[in-house]
Amino acid sequence: MRRTVRRCPPIHRAAARLPLCLAVLAAALPAACQNQKSPDDVANGDDPLAALTVTTESKRYDEMYWRAHRDSKDSAQHALYTKAVAYCVRPDVAINGAKPNCRGVMTAHALEYHPTPPRQRF
C-alpha cells in the first residue's frame, strides 16, 4: 500500500515563504540606503564621471580639470576625458543644463575644436 503525500497548493507554498522574504528584505533595505552618498559628496568625490551624473555643481571637476585631461599625454587621463564628453553630449543629459558639471566638459570640448585665435600684433 502506497502512502500518498499531500502537498500544499502553490499559493500556500508561496505564502509560507513570504515571512522569510520580508525578513531578508527588511534586513537588506537599511544597508542599501546607508551607502547612498549625497549629491554634494558625489560631485566633489573621487570619481569624476560620477560627478557628472548629479545635479550639484562640483568645486573639484571644473573646466580646467577637463582641459588638463583633454591635453594630457597620459592615455588613461585622455580616455577619462573622452568618456566624459560621450556622456555629456547625450541628448538626455545635455537638455536644459540638467547636469551642471557637464559645462566644464563641454567648454573644454568646444575649445578643442575652436581655440582662441592668436592675438594680432600691431
Describe what you observe in this structure.
59% of the residues lie in helices and 0% in strands. The protein is an all-alpha fold. The model has no long low-confidence stretch (mean pLDDT 79).
Tally the helices: what do you get? Answer: 7
Shape: elongated
The end-to-end span amounts to 114 Å
What string gives the helices and strands in order? HHHHHHH
Concise synopsis of the structure shown:
With 122 residues, the chain is mainly alpha-helical.
Chain-wise SSE layout:
Elements: H1 10-34, H2 39-43, H3 48-51, H4 63-70, H5 75-88, H6 91-94, H7 102-113
Helix pairs in contact: 4-5, 4-7, 5-7
Task: Write a concise keyword list for the protein shown above.
single chain, 122 residues, mainly alpha, 59% helix
